Amino acid sequence: MENQIVVPEVIDNTLTIIMYLIYLPIALGMTFLVARILFKNSKIFMLDIFHGRTEIAFATNRLFEIGFYLLNIGAALLILSTYHIDNYQQMIEVLSSKIGGFSIYLGIILFLNLLLFFRGRRKSNQPIQHPIQ
Amino acid sequence: MKATYIVNLLYLLLAVNTTYFLGKSLNKHGEHFLRAIFSNRMEIVLPVNKILLIGFYLVNIGLVLLFYSTQENIYSLSHSIEYLSFKIGITYLVIAAMHYLNILVFILIESNIHKQTIKL
After folding, report:
1. Closest chain A C-alpha to B110 CA, distance in angstroms
2. In a mutagenesis test of the A interface, which of B80, B91, B92 is the best target, namely the one with the most A β-carbons within 10 Å?
3. N or C: which end of chain B has fewer CB within 10 A?
4. Where are the domains of chain A?
């Protein structure tokens, strides 16, 4: 038996790289767009939650925005890697499945954020029932 | 071998930079909360804010360095993109989780203080 040394493939897969270069700007751009729209319109919720204390409301809004960016860019980068792509048809299929999956994920996160805002608003509008120790 | 070094260096640069700017913005926006908690006594707010910032940097840069260690060799451009994005993605997710925890703590403490001041 001859010794077989496993040499990894050194051939760079150009189509894979092209796919990454298309996927990354689309995913990041989608994240930025959604974050800007969501957090421009969430200021009113924040003001409601914090009973009109403007400084804290806007600070919380900004902090949530940064968290949203981190979460979604992290997820977008995490699902980036793919198998060997041989032709353009495969590239388009992989690309569309990735972008579709990411946009569904982004939609779910968007609705979760909205849910969070509504819940916070309801919770902060409840009168104080229990005495605080 | 050289590519491995470059990719690891890039990872370190990106992750540490993100941590730095995140800490700065957390510091800036957290000050409003601290002012509410300590009822505007700036001589307490500023030192506490600084200490919290240092703690944040320590924990997050520690995490970044923890994920740094690798046994893998990079052998192509596409592999280096995959590797880098996977690592950065994991780091971002962990930092995001810590960030949300931070916000939660801020909001809980602040709302408790607010309720107390209303009752008084």
Report:
1. 9
2. B92
3. C
4. 14-123
